[in-house]
Amino acid sequence: MKSTLLNMTAVLFGITLVASAGVGVVNMITIEPIAAAKAAATTAALSEVLPPFDETATEQMTIDELPITVYTATKDGEVSGYAVESMTKQGFNGVVRLMVGFTPDGTIYNVNVLEQAETPGLGTKMADEGNPLLGSVKGQNPAEKKLVDGRLAVTKDGGDVDVLTAATISSRAWVDAINRAWSAYRSAVSGEAPADAASGALKSEWKAEEGAADAAAATDTDSTSTGADAQEGGQDE
What we know:
This protein has helices at 5-49, 132-137, 168-190, 203-224, 228-236; strands at 55-63, 66-75, 78-91, 94-102, 108-115. It has a domain at 47-199. Mean pLDDT is 83; it is low at 198-234. Strands 1-2-3-4-5 form a five-stranded antiparallel beta sheet, with helices on both faces. It has five helices and five strands; from the N terminus they run αβββββαααα. The chain is α+β, with helices and mostly antiparallel strands. It is 44% helix and 21% strand.
């Protein structure tokens, strides 16, 4: 067959059509297993951060323009706890997502790290069992902790949450997500709208504080360290 613009176009169109159909078929095959895996992971995380429960009811919220999910757990018809899927974008390498479990009275039952991309051996320790961050809040009610402007804070910021060694930025991010979870918990219990930044403070004030801290950290980094690991250590120390 003579090669012409028309038949070449037809061939390319056919190839594209077949490829698109193939992608569609693969998507149809994998979408249900992916959804099932995600649901199983969520169920597992809930089991780790909540007291025993029979079922959960889900509520969606937005705090600081970030999506937050609250799971109200019940056992024998009574509320047994609240789990909050919280997040922050303040991690050293971006997003950190946590599942934070509260007893009905507001005590933090447990925390599970769902997603993080922090520096290996430094910020990644937030997911380790018995790490300083978890040890500072597990079994305690945030309302009874040393608060800074109405929210939990790491020791370097005047609070009493112990930081991970050489990973203060990651530690601050973890605490930021905890504060957002605490705000969501209080909203679920009271029925009132959740407060931004887990404190009721103006969002602009919260971001201004974070911006100043990040700027100072960046200055320290430029003058004291090189490389990914050294950079986090330099910023944090």
